[in-house]
Each structure stands twice: as C-alpha cells, then as structure tokens.
Amino acid sequence: MPDLDRETAVQVPGTSAGRFRWTICALLFFATTVNYADRQILGILAPTLQSEIGWSESQYGLIVTAFQGAYAIGLLGMGHFIDRVGTRWGYSLALGWWSIAAMMHGLAASASGFGFARFLLGLGEAGNFPAAIKTVAEWFPKRERALATGIFNSGSNVGATLAPLLVPWLTLQFGWRWAFAGLGGAGLVWIVAWLRMYREPAHHPRLSRAEFDYIRSEPAESAEPIPWRVLIANRPVWALLLARFLTDPVWWFYLYWGPKFLNSQFGLKLDQIGLPLATMYLVSSVGGIFGGWFYSYLTEHGRGNNAARKLAMLACALMVLPIVLAPRVSSPWLATGLISLAMAGHCGWAANIFTIVSDIFPKRAVSSVVGICGFGGAIGGMLVSSAVGFVLQVSGSYLTIFALASFSYLVGLSIIHLMAPRLETVKMEIGNT
Predict the structure, then answer these.
(1) Are residues 293 and 327 located together in one domain of the fold?
(2) Alpha-carbon gap, residue 320 to 344, rounded angstroms
(3) Phi, psi of 302, rounded to the nearest 5 degrees
(4) Is a pLDDT exceeding 50 seen at residue 6?
(5) For position 16, what pLDDT does the model report?
(6) 415-421: which pairs have CB atoms within 8 A and are 24 or more residues apart?
(7) What does the radius of gyration of the chain's CA atoms come to, in whole angstroms?
(8) What phi and psi, each to the nearest 5 degrees, are found at residue 356?
(9) How far apart, in whole angstroms, are the C-alpha atoms of residue 50 and residue 365?
C-alpha cells in the first residue's frame, strides 16, 4: 500500500505524480489486442474451413450467431460478475475462459463443434470491456479516463490488424488448428503478467503516494446503483440501443464476411488476403481518430454539444454510403478501399455513440447503459448474421447486403435525433419510478 506517512500532494496533469497507472493501461491494451485477434481468426480462415469442413453458408451464419448470442448474454452478466469478484480475478477468469475457448476451436471437426466453441468464446470475450472500463475508473482520475480508454481500445484495431498477418502464416506453416492454438494461448501469458502486476491502487506496492493522491484527486461520486427499470424508462437509452441494433451488425459483417467476400468475389487465397485485411483495420483506426477530432473541431468553432455530436456522426454515416459499390467493382483493391472507408466511418461513429453515453448520463449509470446498448447491438448482429448466411446460400450475391449496410447509419442517426432531439443531461431519480 502507498506510504500513508508521506505528505499528501494532489497533482495536476503535467506534474510528477508518477506514471505507473499507464503500465496498467498497457496491460488493458494488450488484453484488448488479444480479444480482437482471437475473435477474428474464424473470419480469416472461413474460406479454408468451409472447404475442409464442408459447412454451408447458412451454417456459417449460425456459427457466427452463436458467438453473438453468447456475447449478448455475457454483456448483461459480466459487469455484475466483475463488480462482485473485483477486476484482478474477474479479468483473469474472463480472459482465461475465452483463451481456452479460442484454443478449443482447434479441436472442432464439424459446424456444430465450431458453433459450440464460438458460444463459449462469446461468453468469455464479453468480459473484456466491462473489466477494462472498471479498471480505468479505479486507476485514473476523470480527466484522464477518456484518454486511457482510447489507448486501451486501440488494441481492438491492433489485434484486428495483426490477425490477418499472423493467421495465414501459422496456417500455411503448421495447419489451421495451430492458428487457433497459438493466438488463443497468447491470452494465458497475459494472465500471468496481470496477476503479478495488478492490485487495486490502495494496495499496490509500486504505486507512489503522490500518484495515488493524483488518482484520487477528484471528489468521489455516488456509488449508489441505478436499477435497470429506471434506465430503460428513458428515451435516450432506447435511441442509442436502436441505433446500435442497426449499425453494430455492419461491423460484425466486415469482421466475419470480409475475408469470404474477397475470396468469393475476387478469388483471393489465404496467402493473399492478409494485406488487404490489415489495410482495412489500419484505415479504420484513422476513422476513429477522425470521429473524435471532428467533434472537437466543431465545438471549438462554436457548435454546441448536440449539434457537434450529431454532425460528426453524420459525417461518419456519409463515409459508409459508397460501400454499396463494393460488390460492383472489378478491382480487389478498389473494393478494399471502399470497405476501408466504410469501416473508418463506423469507428468514428462508434467513438461518438459511446461518448454520448458519458455526455448525458450520470457516471454511475454509464457502464450499465453501455451494457444495455451493447446488448442491443449484439442481438442485431446475431439476427443479421443468420440472415446473411441464408441470403448468400440462396442468392450467392452480396449486393443486397452491402446496400442495406450503406444507409443503416443514416437511419440510426435519424432515430437518435427523433428520440433525443437535444442531447441533454439525463436526470435519474430512483424514487420517481
């Protein structure tokens, strides 16, 4: 525990409060990198596995649905579980669970076997963001939490970029089963580092008193939980849930059908697909930065929060529109460019829709609202994944799918504007319900 006999020294940004909290943030970054790498292996190997295992398009859609259904269930339960057992053990158990589930894919020999492994993976992976967000709340003052969250969340794009480069190499060198075993096993290494290095700030031997005081330099907020019955009585919650129900499935489509689209449309093989996929996720990272920067630019030039947030989301929604042309072009790199632009638009959109929650809801409600809205997005993804599989099996064409994806963000933004015309602070009084 920090030396309590030292003089209390409340620090401000830029002073020598200490930097150990950023080591904790680095651990969150690596966990999120592993999280996204593990979930992407199946999408990269889908053409290879479809040929070897022999599943149909509709069966593949149901395999993806199994993950998303479990992820939706996990989002509702993992936050409560981690609150009860704490971040040190809760995060370890969640990551250990999904690492073993990722490795179990290497034992599957049928569509049902992959579906079972995906379900287990979804349950475990749902614990990453609740645990990471809670850790940030424990280790960072409010003024640094957005930055810390942005840093650890960038691990999702790093993982999604590394996987297309590592999975083909592992598969071609050792076989596809070792791709699941190798990347899945990386999470077990992380658990060792996490258990050795993580304690709560008040009990961490490597944390100086100055940094501890800096972390606790802001007034404590009420920790009284807000019941779901209060949360779901608010129109903004439903606005965000419905918007994510429409737009989250588009991201899942890129993740799980992007490699299959490049293979079926342009004939790209496993050893050719890594660079285009890595390009998509690198560009999408830039989109996330753009979404936050454009909002800041608008506010600095006189726009209020409501207008700036919605205009930033409109710009991101417009970036998605050209995706309708992706199945109509003849060049794989032109298609990659169109998909990359749309993925960048999604990341900018996601950065803003997450921030709306912290803009208008009390801090003690943010995690719950994010979980409820994430549940809506996962349910949408589950339904769309099943539908995509059946559409491709019947028609073999991606035209309708890309057309629907192209305007889903504009519809989502319209819903937000209609149900929350002014993004104002939501006052929640428990006794009023």
Answers:
(1) yes
(2) 8
(3) 95, -5
(4) no
(5) 54
(6) 415/239, 415/242, 415/243, 415/246, 416/239, 416/240, 416/243, 416/310, 416/313, 416/356, 417/310, 418/239, 419/235, 419/236, 419/238, 419/239, 419/242, 420/235, 420/236, 420/239, 420/360
(7) 22
(8) -55, -40
(9) 43
Distance from chain centroid for Cα 415: 22
Domain endpoint, select from 189, 220, 251: 220
Judgement on whether residues 183 and 274 belong to the same structural domain of the protein = no
Reported as a single tens digit per residue, the pLDDT across 187-244 is 999 999 999 999 888 888 888 888 888 877 766 656 566 777 777 788 888 999 999 9
Residue 16 DSSP code? S
| Angle 267-270-271 from CA coordinates, rounded to 5° | 105
Q: Which pTM does this prediction carry?
A: 0.77
Residue 84 lies in a domain: yes
74: CB partners within 8 A, 6+ apart:
122, 123, 124, 125, 126, 127
Residues listed for the chain = 433
Backbone φ/ψ region at 277: left (φ over 0), alpha (ψ -120 to 50), beta: alpha
Helix, strand, or coil (residue 79)? helix
Question: Could you tell me if residue 163 is inside a domain?
Answer: yes
In a domain, 128, yes or no: yes
Which helix H or strand E contains 344, and what residues bound it?
helix 332-360
Tokens 């940094």 sit at which residue? 211
339-371 per-position pLDDT tens digit: 999 999 998 898 788 778 777 777 667 767 877
The range of the structural domain enclosing residue 299 comes to 226-425
Q: Quote the CA–CA distance of 87 and 78 in Å, as a whole number.
A: 11
**CA dihedral of residues 323, 325, 328, 331 (deg, nearest 10):** -70
Q: Are residues 376 and 416 in the same domain?
A: yes
Shared domain for 127 and 245, answered yes or no, is no
DSSP character at residue 6: S
Q: State the pLDDT at residue 430.
A: 57
Residue 404 makes CB contacts below 8 A (sequence gap 6+) with none
Domain shared by 251 and 367, yes or no: yes
Across the range 91-120, mean pLDDT stands at 93
